[in-house]
Amino acid sequence: MASIGKDITEAVRFLNEGEVIGIPTETVYGLAGNALNTEAAAKIFEVKNRPTFDPLIIHTSGIERFKVYVSEIPDNAYALAEKFMPGPLTLLLPRKDNIPDLVTSGLERVAIRIPQHPLTLELLRNLDFPLAAPSANPFGYISPTSAAHVNNQLGNKIPYILDGGECTVGIESTIIGFEENEVIVYRKGGLPIEEIEAVVGRVRINEHSSSNPLAPGMLKSHYAPKKQLILLERGQGKISRDPNKTGFLGFMDYHEDIPLKNQLVLSAEGNFREAARNLFAYMRQLDATDVEVIYTELLPEKDLGRAINDRIRRATVKE
Ligand code: TXA
Ligand code: MG
After folding, report:
1. Which ligand is nearest to the CA of 31?
2. What is the DSSP letter of 222?
C-alpha cells in the first residue's frame, strides 16, 4: 500500500523523480504527475487504466503560472478565472505546444485548473512544473474523496498519498470552454452554473458525449459503483426487490420499505453542498455492504443538484 502523510517535501521528491502520487483537492483526490514529463503522464494513464484518448487536466497554483501554457485567454475566461480560481472550475483554453500531446490527447485545447486546497497549493508552489491530475479512481469508478479511498483502489500502484482530509466540495470541477462569444459547460461540477451565469450571462450546456466524444467524463455510464444503482421517482418510488437485500441512497428522506441499516441520506436538511460532499463516499459505503442493488433518487434540478444528478444518472440504470 502507499504511504499516506502530509509531507510536502516527500511529495515534491516523488514528483521530481517522475513518480505519480495521490493529492487532495477541494473537489476530489487527484492522481498527479509532472504534466511536462511524458513518462509521468503515461504512468497516470497506466495506473488509472484510462484510455489515452481521454485528456488530463493540468493544475497550477495561480493564473500567472498557467498563462505560460495557453495561447489566448478570452475575456470571459479571464473574468471567471479571477472570480472562481482557486476553486472547482476547469477552463478549456487554446494550448501552446509546451504541453505534451499525451496530456491533451492531441487536442487543440488544454484543460486548466487551480485547486483550492492549502496543501496542494503549497505543493504546486514548490514545483517547477504543473501537475497533470485526473481523479484518482480506476477508470469508470466513483471518484475518491479521501486518502483512504485512493489507497483502497490504487494504493498498490503508487508510492505516496498526500493526505488533505476529506474533500470539502466532493464532486469534480465544472468544465467550461469558449467558442466565439459563447460559454459552454462541458461537465457540470462543483461550481454551480448559476454562479457562472452571474458573471458571463447565459451559458450553453453541452449535455451529451455525441458532440464531445473525447470527454469520457461525459460518457453515459461513468462514476459508477460496482452494484447496480436503480433510479426511483423521488418520494414515490416502489421497490420491486427483497427489501433486505436492497440499499437506498436518498436525498433528504429515508425509504419507508427498506431497513434503515441499508440506507443513507445525502442531506437531511436538503443542503446541496452537504449532499455533494457526501455523494461519492455514500455510494462507496453502500457499494461495500452486502445488499444486491441500490435504489436512489434525483435531487431538485438546480444549483449543485444539477451536477449531483448528472453523476447519479451516469451511475444508474433505469428499472
Ligand atoms: O475536480 C476535478 O476536475 C478533478 C481534480 C482532481 O482536479 N479532476 C478530474 O479529472 O475530474 P478527470 O480526468 O477525472 O476528468 C477530467 C475531464 C475528463 O472528462 C476529460 O475528458 C476532460 O476533463 N478533459 C481534460 N482535458 C480536456 C481537453 N483538453 N479537452 C476536452 N476535455 C478535456
Ligand atoms: Mg474522473
Report:
1. 1
2. -
Whole-number Å distance, alpha carbon 259 to ligand 2 midpoint, is 32
Nearest CA to ligand 1 atom 31: 215
Which residue ranges form the domains of the chain, and what is each CATH number? 3-205 (3.90.870.10), 228-315 (3.40.50.11030)
What are the pLDDT tens digits along the chain (319 aa)?
A: 999 999 999 999 999 999 999 999 999 999 999 999 999 999 999 999 999 999 999 999 999 999 999 999 999 999 999 999 999 999 999 999 999 999 999 999 999 999 999 999 999 999 999 999 999 999 989 999 999 999 999 999 999 999 999 999 999 999 999 998 899 999 999 999 999 999 999 999 996 543 344 554 555 556 678 899 999 988 777 898 999 999 999 999 999 999 999 999 999 999 999 999 999 999 999 999 999 999 999 999 999 999 999 999 988 865 5
Q: How far is the CA of 87 from the centre of ligand 1 (A)?
A: 14
C-alpha cell recorded at residue 294: 441500490
Strands (DSSP E) found in 88-227: 89-94, 109-113, 131-132, 160-162, 174-179, 182-187, 204-205
The pTM score is 0.94
User: In Å, how far are 94, 96, 134, 258 from 72, measured between CA atoms?
Assistant: 6, 9, 24, 54
Q: Which atom of ligand 1 is nearest to the CA of 173?
A: 1
Ion ligand 2 — residues with CB < 5 Å: 135
Q: Which of 52, 57, 185, 277 to mutate to test the pocket of ligand 1 (most atoms within 8 A of CB)?
A: 57
Q: Whose CA is nearest to atom 20 of ligand 1?
A: 215
